[in-house]
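Limitations
The structure tokens in this dataset are predictions for the assembled complex, not deposited experimental models. Users should treat interface geometry with appropriate caution, especially where small molecules or nucleic acid strands are included. An illustrative entry is reproduced here so readers can see what is and is not provided.
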Amino acid sequence: MASFEYNGKAVDVDEDGFIEDPSVWNEELAKALAEIEGVTEMSDDHWKIVHYLRDYYKQFGIAPMVRKLCKETDTPLKRIYELYPSGPAKGACKVAGLPKPTGCV
Amino acid sequence: MPKEYKTPKLDELEKGPWPSFVKEIKLAAKKSEMSNDLLGQLEQSYNEKLGHWKHGGIVGVMGYGGGVIGRYSDLPDKYPSVSHFHTIRVNQPSGWFYTSDALRTICDIWEKHGSGLTNMHGSTGDMVFLGTTTDHLEPVFKDLTEAGWDLGGSGSDMRTPSCCVGPGRCEWACYDTLQRCYDITMRYQDELHRPAFPYKWKFKFAGCPNDCVASIARADISVIGTWKDDIRVDADQVKTYADEGLDIFNDVVLNCPAKCMRYDGEKKEISIDNKDCRRCMHCINVMPKALRPGVEQGATILIGAKAPIVEGALLSSVLIPFLDIDDEEEFEAFCDLIEEMQDVWCEEGKNRERVGEFIQRVGMGNFLEAVGVEPIPEMVAYPRDNPYVFYEDFYEDEDE
Ligand code: SF4
Ligand code: SF4
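Predicted assembly:
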């Protein structure tokens, strides 16, 4: 299993860099993951997406459909790609510490 | 020194006169360790009757959500060169017309960044580049875009539209498939690169009912060329076919699905009752010099086909019987309808539900109402044989 290091700590990640255990997530880790997905600074807009994804995941156990994400966070898809250049699935979900989405987002 | 794999099972697939993917992989293996390990892993899979690719990975390039399909070996220690073996879809040109220069450029790029193996073309229509590693994705994307290429669709987005060669080579094309395929590709770049639909959304453009891109079986939106007026008949050529020994009565007339043709064997004359003709192309295909589609040409728009992946296979059904799609205004109307349908399907569709399945679930009547299209008899598969037609106007007064 691969591991990802940040601030001297290490977490297990899968081959696509998604963290294996969602419970180890914290904001520091999110910032570090964001960096490898091309996000230099986590703004409020970035966090809004991350928090929405985490809340949804806690409630339903899966990632929301992209359209729902856009609607409920009031963020057009274009803007999501500006915030997370690698997109909602590979980028935002990874930073939010969700398990790898399967086909939906 | 590269490993050498014994591949008796794969070798079987090199026998016979036909092309062989094993031959091609072996050729590539001379230059690429990745292709070589692919041989080893594939032989092992054949021996064990077990695939050794893990299910689904999420990889991509910055700015795009589709176009790359992540793939990893589950035996990375044994076959390290295929531990990553991602697939890249590259948007093909309309009708698959390339200059040899273009092909050389593509192959050079791919030998530099991947296994060198391609699949020309995948069932989506894209060029498929087989096998590269995560750290090569951005560089290969950069090289491709610099040479004027772009990635295709994957996942829940608009898949790369594709079309038949149409007017580029084919006399039967009833509209410009190449142009319209290109127009849709360019207009919906966002939808193509940034998946946001319930599931995939495929467009295929066929110039006539021969449907050389199998759009009726595979595309969510099939655009199939057709004509409104009468089949053009060249009487002299009919006689020539008869004189040359074509059995017009048995091979043409009796095989007409609409039974709308008559043949006078003495005069060697064909007559067609065009209002019953189903535009199936059969007679035209058998007697191409004598018969041709009419002059009032356009396309039929159909909706809802899919291959049997999540649920069973569906053929598409008629949505718009005739549209002069070469006309700019009618093309705009077509695009408006597409967007209307996207909205309804995205709003109400379930995750991983193709539009055809969605229509089955909510009912064609409701779907038509939601997208603002009037139901008409042309939408019914066998209008003349189907006794289950519900006339709303007829029932309204008495039964409600
Ligand atoms: S679908 Fe029709 S127009 Fe297109 S290539 Fe085939 S025969 Fe020709
Ligand atoms: S196109 Fe088909 S249905 Fe029409 S006349 Fe020819 S064979 Fe018959």
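Some entries come with short summary sentences. For this one: Residues B 256-258, 260-261, 272, 277-283 surround iron/sulfur cluster (ligand 2) (CB under 6 Å).
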